[in-house]
Amino acid sequence: MTVPAWLEWFYLFFWIVFLLFLAIGGYFMFRKFLKALPKEDGKSILDWQEYYINQTLHLWSDEQKALLNELVEPVPKLFRDVAKQKIAGKIGELVFHEQAEKLTEEHIVKGYILATPKRDHKWLIKTLQKKQIDLSAYQHLFQ
Fold first, then answer.
1. Which of 13, 81, 98, 133 has a CA that sits 20 to 30 A from residue 54's CA?
2. What is the pLDDT averaged over residues 128-137?
């Protein structure tokens, strides 16, 4: 009994798509695994991120949380929480190292710029201009 040609092509297509999805999933799992590996100091990138968030959590007001939510709006919903946590960790790191008593809009903007890839900066610039926030102090971070 022979298998129809269209079924053979379907099997081939199925296995190619299956292996492609497996590779994509493996790539993202491997990236997460690398971030969870401890560095020289014994803590991973994710451990430090969580540490900075916990140390500065009491400084966040509802208005500042709303600004962060607005800034991460273009991120797809599936990845939004991870992006928000990464950005909040970077903001927390800035505030922690400055030993600031209060979290400011400047910390949020600076942390967002430092935590995100350059391709996201275009949307950030548009959003900040719409909110009438002066970007001259942050130009060196966009380079």
1. 133
2. 83
Query: Of the candidates 141, 107, 123, which has an alpha carbon nearest to the alpha carbon of residue 75?
Result: 123
CA-to-CA distance for 65 and 80, rounded, in angstroms? 14
Q: Tell me the two tokens of residue 54.
A: 């916990």
Q: Which of 60, 138, 65 is nearest to 103 (CA)?
A: 60
Contacts of 105 (CB under 8 A, 6+ apart): 64, 67, 133
| Host H or E run for residue 63 | helix 62-71
Q: Among candidates 46, 126, 127, which has minimal Cα distance to 90?
A: 46
- Helix 45-56 with 77-98: angle, nearest 10 deg: 70
pLDDT at 15: 97
Share of the chain above pLDDT 90, in %: 49
DSSP state of 2: P
The model's confidence at residue 48, banded by pLDDT at 50, 70 and 90, is very high
Distance between CA 94 and CA 90 in Å, rounded? 6
φ/ψ of residue 142, rounded to 5: -80, -10
